[in-house]
Amino acid sequence: MAKDQRFTILVVDDSPINRQLLETALSKEGYRIVKAPDGPTARKLAEAETPDLILLDIMMPGEDGFEVMKKLKQNPNTSSMPVIFLTGVSEIDSKLTGFDLGAVDYITKPFHPLEVLARVRLHLKLSIATNSLIADQANKLKQISKAQSSLLVTPSQIPEANFGIYYLSLQEAGGDFYDVLSISQDIFGYFVADFSGHDIQTSFLTSSIKALLKQNCTPVYQPMESIKMINDVLTEILPPGKYLTACYARLNRKTKEMTIINAGHPPAVYVPKNGTPRLIMANGDLLGIFKDVVFDKEIISTTKGDRFYLYSDGLVESQEKKILWSDGAPQLLEICDKVRDVPILESSNQIIKLQFGGEPKREDDIVVLGIEV
Question: Are 58 and 12 in contact (CB under 8 A)?
């Protein structure tokens, strides 16, 4: 809508008479009219004026209405603008082509001003309703995102856990999750998970995971027992087709013993203070699908200054470049080696910068959880 609160309509027609007729009929009803005699001019005006509705002639010399429509849809600044085609052609194939391209309606020439006004009112009302729905959904997603973020612990909340974190959500409601738990005075749990799918339903499940971790990651249970009990509950509450991969690390800072359990997740990285980084290749089943699951575990005797990195597949995989985590692992080991002297609070962010050459392209959720013994 224009700054003067009137609806703006872009009229695109190579006929000066038609442009004038439409302007006269529409301006009487209080609409602000912008006119274009051809496709290129129309596209420039659409981006500059952001009209609420476009009336677009099909049969124009040079760039016809269909071509204009294609280019409008390809431009993110104009792709959502509703378009009504003006046509003297009544063939069904032509109309279907227009609808396939994204037109909301057709007005056949010679047009009657009352019909034009009726269709314009209808589609402006629909546009208002659609925009209101989108805004409402966006607001709800922001609320969900805010609630989800409140579940994520920060290093300042548990400084004795000595960890750093990088978290990027692809959408307002993310599918990746992490948690850090103070199990006892000297024992801490570190958990990174990746839900299948990136939808609102997933975001509601993260609170369930946090509750399950708190209930089952306690001093009386061994790490393997904790993960199996969490899996038992997930098989009961997750909807069909939903599952998650996870990596769980439990560090006893008194004995310097680290236990790693993997549930179908990319392998953790171990960076000894005075050694070569390596992957911890513990394998295991996915969580939330089967009751009878098998997990490998690796127990490592550490020394002060050793580091571990748990991460989600968004760090090392790329759908666009078709890179799997196994292909990206060698580079990740090199990067973890390079940041071994970076403070643990900053190392996860530094890994991201070296891996992506700056901020990553939003292709997937990303979690990088760094732990220092």
Answer: no
212-243: b (≥16 Cβ within 10 Å) or e: bbeebbeeebebbebbbebbebbbeebeeebb
CA distance 353 to 226: 34
C-alpha dist (Å) from residue 136 to 125, 174, 289: 16, 19, 34
User: Which tens digits make up the pLDDT trace of 116-145?
Assistant: 999 999 999 888 887 777 666 555 545 544
Q: What b/e readout covers 158-192, taking b as 16+ CB neighbours within 10 angstroms?
A: eeebbbbbbbbbebbbbbbbbbbbebeeebbbbbb
Which two three-digit tokens encode residue 119?
């269709």
Examine residue 360 and say whether the peptide bond preceding it is cis (omega within 30 degrees of 0).
no
pLDDT: is 239 or 17 the higher one?
17
Rounded Cα distance, 333 and 309, in Å: 10
Query: pLDDT for 243-288, tens place per residue?
Result: 989 999 999 999 999 999 999 999 999 999 999 999 998 889 999 9
DSSP 13: -
Q: Which amino acid is at 243?
A: Y
pLDDT for 320: 46
d(CA 172, CA 227): 28
Q: Burial letters for 114-143: b for 16+ Cβ neighbours within 10 Å, e otherwise?
A: eebeebbeebbeebeeeeeeeeeeeeeeee
Residue 189 has what DSSP assignment?
E
Closest to 238 measured CA to CA, from 195, 192, 180, 199: 195
Give the integer Cα–Cα distance in Å for 200 and 363.
Answer: 18
Using CA atoms, how far apart are residues 40 and 62, in angstroms rounded to an integer? 10
Contacting residues for 133 by C-beta, under 8 A, at least 6 apart: none
- Pair type for strands 53-57 and 83-87: parallel
If you ran DSSP here, which 8-state letter would residue 160 be given? G
Q: Looking at the whole model, is its pTM more than 0.70?
A: no
Q: Which residue has the tokens 């809508």?
A: 1
pLDDT by residue (tens digit) across 323-337? 455 555 788 999 999
Q: Which domains does the chain have, with CATH numbers?
A: 8-139 (3.40.50.2300), 151-372 (3.60.40.10)
